[in-house]
Amino acid sequence: MSRPDEFRFEDLEVDRLRAIRQRFLDAGESAQGIGDYWASDLDLLHYDAVFAERIGWKWDAVLDEVDARGGLAVAAARGATVLDWGCGTGIASRRFVERFGAGRVLLHDRSARAMAYSARRLGELEQPPEVERWLDALDAPIDVLLVSHVLTELEGQALTDLIAVAERSTAVVWVESGNRPASRQLSRLRDLLLPGFDVVAPCPHDGPCSALLAGGEQWCHFYAKPPAAVFSDPDWVRLFKQLGIDLRALPYAFFALEKDSELDGPAPDHRLLGRPQIGSRVATVWVCEAAGLAQREVVKSRDKELFRRLKKEVGVREMG
Ligand SMILES: C[S@@+](CC[C@H](N)C(=O)[O-])C[C@H]1O[C@@H](n2cnc3c(N)ncnc32)[C@H](O)[C@@H]1O
Fold first, then answer.
1. pTM, 2 dp
2. What domains sit in the chain, N to C, each tagged with a CATH number?
């Protein structure tokens, strides 16, 4: 878990955290957006220490999956140029650099204060990349575009611009909250971008998004796990209780796309979505397959090992 040097739990103001959280909820609900809300460095520090850290756990899960698929050769092969678009405190680029390294990180945010904060934190990494402010007019080549939790704040033109940036990037990793509207919007973006890219993750096929095609109640989302140490850390447990946030529920949606990818082997033939429903003898899971979305039953007496694993999955989230 990486925390800024100056971070101590006792310094955190719960009311400030509540106000920041409320601002995000407002930003998501307001049709006009709410403008630059990064009012102070202290707000950024609070966001970074708590909410961004939580987003970082989602990025860990995403990058694990990308890594396991052998994705992002473009990043592994050389010091990639990475653009963190809507960087906030830069959690996406920090997690990325910690995992893959990077030659140069370009930061973009409508808040100059946020970019300055991100640059400072990137500079504290063990192997700090070069950091610059991104200027679209420079038309810099982008190896990896990172986008994290910005979709609900973007109005028409900003989203159009971002899609154009994605189209000219070699790889795109985009992570959003796992709620239904955000996930559906992300699935539509995946389908829009797909003709120019290969799917690295999470899809087991490169056809149109099965969750969108199915149209019903299901949507493409997953659950990340915070590090085990978080559950036994009384500071984290108390803080999330005070904020009314379930520490165990880390829903996220994402896609990782890459041009001319060099993946390790074929895509898995299916991908579990959401949470399994565990009964005493049957577990019900939603799976995405090349043929579409399907609900499957895992019967304990017939498939003990899989049933046990699904139960453990849910059980881990029920801890703490
Ligand atoms: C919810 S924060 C997420 C920050 C960071 N990516 C993360 O995952 O923690 C959304 C960020 O997008 C930025 N943002 C919103 N609209 C933007 C726009 N039109 N252009 C550039 N940045 C924007 C905000 O200033 C904010 O820093």
1. 0.93
2. 9-268 (3.40.50.150), 269-320 (no CATH)
